[in-house]
Write a structure and sequence with these properties.
Elements: H1 2-46
Amino acid sequence: LFKYCLKQSSIDNVDKKIDTLSKEFKNLVEKIAELTGAIKNEKDEEE
């Protein structure tokens, strides 16, 4: 039973890490989208 609890808690920790990572990844994607959007806007203005 103790081993099972230990496994369960480590799985929970992994889930939390994945959740945190996915949030950070979403933030990165949004920042990249903003950057590419800004670059597109600058190109449009030049034409």
